[in-house]
Amino acid sequence: MIDLLTTRYTYVLFAALLVVGLYIVIASSNLVKKVIGLNIFQTAIFLFFVSAAYIEGGASPVIHGEGGPYASPLPQVIVLTAIVVGVALTAVALALVVRIYSEYGTLDEQTLREVRADE
């Protein structure tokens, strides 16, 4: 068990980030904290993709003439695209949070539900 944790530590880190991000999204009532939790969750998914694509001793598929296993660049391309999309979604989410705060004066989810129910 210890050997598995020391050799596959990125998967342990992935699981820890996933649980922390999910907990923040579920347990927090503050909208900014929810956005931060989503970013942590998203980072865990990125780590999982990169860790799963890693090949011990893998060579770049661009270099010809080298033998051995080749690492696929596709997961890195997908993660790079997801990072760009994630940054854009974070910017939109934070802009919405700023707009909600200026309109209602609070970022607490329960208070917002009460205010919306009174309207």
TrEMBL record:
Gene3D superfamilies: 1.10.287.3510. Its main location: membrane. One of its GO terms (cellular component) is membrane. InterPro entries: CPA3_antiporter_subunitC, NUOK/Mnh_C1-like. The chain crosses the membrane at residues 6-26, 38-57, 77-98. Keywords: Membrane, Transmembrane, Transmembrane helix. It is found in: Membrane. Pfam families: Oxidored_q2. It comes from the Archaea. It is a multi-pass membrane protein. This is Cation:proton antiporter. It comes from Halovenus carboxidivorans. The lineage of its organism: Archaea, Methanobacteriati, Methanobacteriota, Stenosarchaea group, Halobacteria.
